[in-house]
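can u do me a favor
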């Protein structure tokens, strides 16, 4: 494994940090920005990890990653906030074709410090992406690769995805997904799911919300065994389905020849398939 910080990346452009300050709710805030770029080389996957902050990934040029890192340091005083900001270190690690981007404090963390680090990524559409955050939204657009997204508190939005596999999870936040993936898995504990799944062959789709409704748009000629379950709500399917069982809260049957598998489930909310 090779390990290089943003300040020592070979072939990486680094912008001058810009500082701004303001105070709110008895917290001072200092904000800065870094710009990184590096060639694809042998990279087959990008992993982006942050604790507090959003990740936004968009399809860009085929041969380069261009990344804007937005950083905030917060503390009771402006001096401490600027110290927190200065202590944020962006880390890039590569191993076996996987590049990982994350951050850490480069010195022992003061109890007064808090930080938010967000990543905006322009990347080759064919490079696989995994992105995780504890507190923040995840937004992906235009990728043709496998995508794996996870946030504890925040929404997940995926647009124009044409890769083979998509997995999206939020513990507290809604999911909005548009994908032609043959293997699509989306789950939230608290939030609604809105999914457009355009795979026309035999998709394998799993949509689960513990508290929230589910709205699924399938291709008109999709072929799958269909299961829709809710504990508190109703189920509606606007597509021609050969039903094995049907009630207000349950529907199981076959779309087309039933070659794929589609399962939608929520504890509290209604389900609509169309």
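np, heres the sequence
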């Amino acid at each position: 494994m090779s390990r290089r910080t943003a300040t020592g990346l070979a072939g990486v452009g680094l912008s001058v940090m810009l500082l701004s300050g303001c105070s709110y709710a008895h917290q001072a805030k200092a904000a800065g920005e870094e710009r990184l770029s590096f060639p694809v080389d042998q990279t087959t996957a990008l992993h982006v990890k942050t604790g507090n902050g959003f990740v936004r990934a968009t399809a860009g040029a085929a041969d380069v990653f261009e990344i804007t890192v937005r950083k905030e340091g917060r503390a009771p005083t402006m001096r401490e906030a600027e110290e927190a900001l200065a202590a944020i270190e962006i880390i890039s690690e590569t191993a076996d074709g996987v590049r990982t981007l994350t951050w850490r404090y480069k010195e022992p963390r003061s109890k007064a410090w808090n930080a938010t680090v967000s990543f905006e990524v322009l990347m080759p559409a064919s490079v696989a992406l995994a992105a995780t955050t504890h507190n923040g939204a995840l937004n992906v657009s235009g990728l043709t690769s496998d995508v794996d997204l996870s946030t504890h508190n925040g929404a997940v939005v995926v647009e124009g995805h044409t890769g083979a596999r998509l997995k999206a999870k939020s513990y507290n936040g809604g999911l909005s997904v548009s994908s032609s993936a043959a293997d699509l898995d989306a789950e939230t504990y608290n939030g609604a799911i809105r999914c457009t799944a355009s795979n026309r062959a035999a998709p394998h789709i799993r949509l689960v919300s513990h508290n929230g409704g589910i709205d699924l748009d399938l291709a008109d000629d999709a072929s799958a065994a269909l299961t829709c379950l809710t504990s508190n709500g109703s189920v509606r399917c606007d597509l021609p389905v050969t039903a094995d069982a049907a009630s207000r809260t349950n529907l199981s049957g076959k779309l087309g020849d039933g070659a794929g598998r589609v399962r939608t489930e929520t504890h509290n909310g209604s389900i609509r398939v169309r």
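Confidence is low (pLDDT under 50) at residues 1-24. hope that helps!!
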